[in-house]
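Example record

One chain of 328 residues, shown exactly as stored in the release files.
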Amino acid sequence: MPRSSLYAFSIVITLCLFPVPLTAQVVYPEVYAEHITGQELDFHIRYLSDSLLQGRETGSVGGSEATRYIVSRFYEYGLAPLGTGDPKRYNDSYLQGFVCPTGQRGRNIIGWIPAENQSNEYIIISAHYDHLGMINGILYPGADSNASGVAALLSLARTFGILKREGCGVARNLIFVAYDAKEFSMTGARIFALSLGIPAARIVLNMNLDQLGSSLEPPGDSPDYVLILGACSVPDHIIQSMNNNNSFYNTGLDLDYSFYNSPAFAEIFFSMTEQSVLSQMHVPSLLITSGVNDHTYKPDDNPDIIDIPVLIKRARWLFFTLWDLAQR
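Predicted structure tokens for this chain:
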């Protein structure tokens, strides 16, 4: 019998002995990761850091335009307002309004992708979208801080939305939240945590993305790096997933858990970012970042300092990790 015929015969025998349900699908995450592109990431960053948005200060006209932009993307990508399963309901139901202690009115933007089959476990992906605004007539664009983190969050949301539409959903619920008022004592993150209504024990992980777009302060010689804070307080299998997916899919990142071998600075930086709020509620929480640099909180934090090729690697690695964790 010719080899090709023998191969076909063996497949038939295998299918007869071990039938596969007709609804079963094989998902290749690397195919879906290609939906995360440099063009998309760059567009989000340039839009959010454009002078039209006036630095995205909480409560400002520019901040409202940033809100509108992110809401429209959530709607386009098929995210449902939290608590519903229908993305075609009202756009404003993505919004969680609040007032900062100093009087500014902020709005968190929350959407989710429900698990394919009902699940009581959640993964939260977050990033703040506000920045400093205009100070003494000078624009603070906030391209790296934190249009870059929002760009990655939106790309992840779109990719998981595509999976959902194609019938390749996840086993755990994914919540995507864009926080407002990070620059006002992290009020948005505090309001979100206090009103979430999900027991902390049901939240598998909060992965917060903040300043993810530069390669200006590598911990070693390579610009292909990412800094991970909070690893000592999350279950081992989460760290294993990050490491394994970086290796298996050849994203080629240097995963740095030491934050420049400075535990004291790592603790300070962790406490100044939103995942610290859920961490205090005993939710496993990580900060994913490229670190501070000479442009942080300065007027020259603009799209020119963003390393798009490295940001693509980081965003795709995040997708592989989240896909893995969302299936367990």
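Notes: DSSP finds ten helices and eleven strands in the chain.
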